[in-house]
Amino acid sequence: CHYYLILDVGNKAAVFPLQLLGFDVDVINSVHFSNHTGHPHGFEGQIMNGDQLKTILNGLQRNDLLYNVSHLLTGYIGSETFLRSVLHVLQTLKDEQQKKEQRQQQQQQRE
Asked: What is the pTM of this model?
């Protein structure tokens, strides 16, 4: 089973097709805006920064919720700190996959 972790603005365009293909999808919104930024009267909201992304990642990791994440899809990256945190997420996901493979190998050796 493959899981996607999506860091994006308009993730609905990616989530539904992936779900139709049988993927489980978790989404972390990189922005929370009231409306599209092109509206004539502006918009309100926040852009997630790198520290906020790391905080979310720490919670997911502490609760062992990253072991099945096999793909990462990104979209809008609003700052250098967020980009650095995305790279940290990618490395963390790779590390989690290695741990998972090691556990599977150890289990197979016991059988």
From this structure: 0.80
